[in-house]
Amino acid sequence: MFTLIQKRYDFTNYQIAQLKYTFTILFSELSKFVLISFFYRNQLGVYLYALILLSVLRLSTGGLHAKTYWGCFLMSFIFFWLAIKLLPQIDVPKVVMVILIISGMAAIYRIGSVASVFRMQPEGIMKKRLIVQSLIVIMIHLILFCIFDSKLLTVGSWIIVLQTCQLIAAKFSVHKEVK
Question: What is the pLDDT of residues 96-142, one digit of tens each?
């Protein structure tokens, strides 16, 4: 298939390698999230909100990355399990959660994005745009969290807290890659 694309559109070997990498990443990410969705099939709406929120934040802030598919799957599974199943059971006063979210916003503003060692670190205007994007998303969530009382927003708040913690870990990690 890639040979046909290369001949038809006159792509270079490098462009074909990029295309292969893109398809590999898309398949890996989609398959991982579909597999995890089976675990949350009775809470699909909550899982989808958590997935979308986390995806937007991860795309704009980055963080820790696993070296293998199964390592990434396990990290993602634990992340969602913490945010959806375990942490919402802790009775955290709303004001404390608001403080945690605002602290997370401050940390994201200070740290910025942390890209994988295999990607270039964003700089200048791109870095600022990514930070602003993540802060806007968190601010919208925070406003909704302050107005409404729902499991969906509680889970989203834990997603923000966990993403901030893992971003801090990634910033201070020597290798930024975990097994």
Answer: 999 999 999 999 999 888 876 656 666 778 888 999 999 999 999 99
How many CA atoms, within 13 angstroms, populate the side-chain half-sphere of residue 10? 0
CB 170 within 8 A of CB 90: no
Record the tokens describing residue 2, joined without a space: 């890639």
Burial class (CB in 10 A: 0-12, 13-18, 19+), 96: exposed
Which candidate, 106, 75, 81, places its Cα nearest to that of 177?
75
> What type of residue sits at position 87?
L
**Distance (Å) of CA 99 to CA 14, 49, 83, 89, 115:** 47, 21, 17, 18, 26
Q: Compute φ and ψ for 162, nearest 5 degrees.
A: -65, -40
Cα(first)–Cα(last) distance of the chain, in Å? Answer: 32
Phi, psi values for residue 177, rounded to 5°: -125, 135
Burial class (CB in 10 A: 0-12, 13-18, 19+), 154: buried
CA-based nearest residue to 63, from 121, 139, 148, 102: 121
